[in-house]
Write a structure and sequence with these properties.
By secondary structure, this protein is an alpha+beta fold. The chain has a domain of about 180 residues. Helix content is about 50%, strand content about 15%. The N terminus is likely disordered.
């Protein structure tokens, strides 16, 4: 059995329960105390009726008393298991004989009800050396950290949605647990270490629930980073024009999902994106899995965010397509680095340029000739969009080149139109929209943009937030697991892995 690390890097003084630490008492004492607390609960309800108290006041009093009762009952549960004494010696799974140490060693355990100090008999070579066996820890299935698995689960559910400071405040208000922000951050990173092994071991969705088309998509989203610590006095820096106050590092966000074919015409698309007439019976993505990666060092080696995300997408897609021959669609914007990485990991995929990014360029081109918001600008976009949707990409690009010359554009408008033409020219291999529509392939990357918002922006860009690379990556891994509806499975998998590591084949 591996030695137990008493604090897992958490500082003991970071936790201060309102009522201090409860020492384990005998099961008889715990049972009597629990009965007295239960009687007091019932009596407090009768007293509240006599005093005509509001129901919310009674509710607050009851939850406080129920937390106290829960701690006593947990004490009773521990007390009924004794102290783990197996005699003067005990054998390990490997057949080694260990001696019972003379002193009883205490173990700190923080539950949702409060904190317990658990005395137990331990075994090792001699006092002062590492503890090699703590039978009571194994019997109870204690975690490696001081915090219970329930506390770790609940704490991270708070941290996934709001700042660590807000999570700490909520825990104190609801459960009377005072856990410091730095402790929550470390807990987050340590829990995130279990995400990749869980992801690699998870079973693919049932084949009967998958759509006939598999889609991979990727995009980038900036994460505000903490400024590096500077040596010496802080120097004032006045930002230059266009310089932003906070430096961001790009997270690469990806998703894999399956979907049913959805055959449409150019008119259908124009009705939706120009006339804002929603298409009926649009199929929904099935088993959408999102992921996000930061560029970082892993075991001393640099890992590029794009390589990391495409590797994760590759593993997910291959697992889901094993034994099948579903067509694979890769749907992205025009960033060349993404397409270069796609050619490495998904060379067989049908590459599709996101139509909404194309439309942004068409509107930009329209405003070189027509006023924003004008009917003429809308007509300009609709006409060229129809050409692209009907497969006349070269014709559209040629028409824009002619306008560039015929209208003798100069200055910024000329540069703007030239950039639009270059964008379309560089991406024309991924713009066979007439073929995509007939095959029923998706042509808009709303899933990737939604993942950028829900996975990254909604948590990482809250007011005043700044991240380290390790902290950001940990949060992105945990949030992805949560958003993929895999949280409960992840928590159980993490517990089972830790219990096996701590207690071996005898783990419960």
């Amino acid at each position: 059995m591996a030695p137990l690390r008493q604090n897992m890097g958490y500082q003991a003084n970071m936790f201060h329960p309102t009522k201090g630490t409860a020492m384990i008492i005998s099961k008889e004492q715990a049972l009597l105390k629990a009965q007295a607390q239960l009687d007091q609960l019932i009596a407090s309800v009768h007293q509240a009726v006599e005093q005509s108290r509001r129901i919310d006041q009674v509710e607050r009093d009851l939850i406080a008393q129920l937390l106290d009762l829960g701690l006593t009952l947990l004490n009773l549960f521990v007390a009924q298991h004794g102290n783990g004494d197996l005699g003067t010696t005990a054998e390990t799974d490997e057949g080694r004989t260990l001696r019972r140490l003379a002193q009883t060693h205490e173990r700190r355990y923080v539950a949702i009800f409060g904190e317990l100090t658990i005395p137990r008999v331990v075994y090792g070579t001699r006092e002062g050396q590492k503890i090699e066996l703590a039978p009571l820890d194994q019997t109870l299935g204690l975690p490696e950290a001081d915090f219970s698995y329930v506390v770790q689960d609940w704490v991270q559910r708070f941290c996934l949605k709001g700042s660590f400071a807000e999570a700490a405040e909520s825990l104190q208000t609801l459960l009377r647990l005072r856990i410091g922000v730095h402790t929550l951050e470390r807990m987050s990173q340590e829990m995130a270490d279990s995400v990749v092994p869980f992801r690699e071991a998870i079973e693919p969705p049932p084949a009967t629930e998958e759509g006939p088309i598999l889609v991979v998509t990727a995009d980038g989203k900036g994460v505000p980073m903490r400024r590096p610590v500077q040596d010496g006095p802080k120097r004032h820096h006045r930002r230059t024009k266009g310089e932003k106050a906070n430096k961001k590092q790009m997270a690469c966000v990806g998703a894999v999902y399956s979907i049913k074919p959805f055959v449409r015409t150019a008119d259908d698309i124009l009705d939706e994106v120009i006339r804002h007439e929603k298409i009926k019976d649009r199929p929904e993505p099935t088993h959408k899995h999102v992921w996000a990666e930061m560029s970082r060092d892993v075991e001393g080696e640099p890992l590029n965010a794009k390589d990391a995300i495409f590797c994760a997408l590759f593993q997910d897609l291959n697992l889901r397509n094993a034994g099948h021959d579903r067509p694979v669609v890769c749907l992205m914007d025009g960033e060349r680095a993404l397409w270069e990485t796609q050619r490495v990991y998904f060379p067989e995929a049908v590459g599709i340029l996101d139509l909404f990014h194309v439309m942004e360029r068409l509107w930009t081109a329209a405003h070189c000739f027509h006023a924003e918001g004008s009917d003429a600008a809308e007509e300009f976009v609709a006409d060229r969009l129809r050409g692209l949707l009907e497969g006349r990409v070269g014709h559209v690009i040629g028409g824009l080149r002619q306008r560039l010359t015929k209208h003798q554009l100069t200055g910024s408008r000329r540069k703007t139109l030239e950039s639009v033409i270059t964008y379309l020219e560089n991406n024309r291999d991924h713009m066979s929209y007439d073929v995509y529509l007939k095959a029923g392939y998706p042509i808009g990357s709303g899933v990737a943009e939604g993942a950028c918002r829900h996975l990254v922006k909604d948590r990482m860009e809250q007011t005043g937030m700044r991240w380290t690379v390790s902290g950001a990556q940990a949060m992105l891994h945990l949030r992805a697991t949560y958003l993929n509806d895999q949280w409960d499975e992840f928590i159980e998998d993490r517990i089972e892995r830790e219990q096996t590591r701590l207690y071996g084949k005898n783990a419960a």
